[in-house]
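User: Run a structure prediction on this.
Assistant: Running it now.
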Amino acid sequence: MSTPSLTTPSQTVGPFFGFALPYSGGPEVVPPWRPDAIQVRGRVLDGAGEPVPDALLEIWQPDGSGEVRRRPGGRVRAGHGFSGFGRCGTDADGGYWFSTVKPGATGGGAPYIAVLLFARGLLKPVFTRLYFPEDQAAHAADPLLAEVPAERRATLIAERAGEREYRFDIRLQGEGETVFLAF
């Protein structure tokens, strides 16, 4: 008599992000008190519109002048420094937030923040971009947005939620599914 194999299915992952990856100050790319700080908030939702309470988001972006800063110690921010990197786990309602600066444009495209999303059921993170609603003229010339069908572009554009606040919900599937990028 043989013992049945107890292998873990390859499509199973997490939720384990809360143990090792979030860290204190992770959502603060810049401190919220900085005069140029903006808040980006949103929710991660599944195909049924239900919150994903155990996802992890990372953002990567240039600074306000469009300069990409890649220096060691992105987790450590000295006072009011800018690292270009942030990480935030979602809460019970699928909510996340970042305190950052609005990025400047790079490479002739519209300003954007690169977003990576890790979640249960995903073997690899999915990638998307967050564009800003006030940059419509730049959207028309953005090479990536030009490749996205017109009816889907809105899933990449945040909504203004206040003077220095934006809302960007990410839908993993279904109606209004966020556009995800392949690299």
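Residues 17-171 form a domain with the Protocatechuate 3,4-Dioxygenase, subunit A fold (CATH 2.60.130.10).
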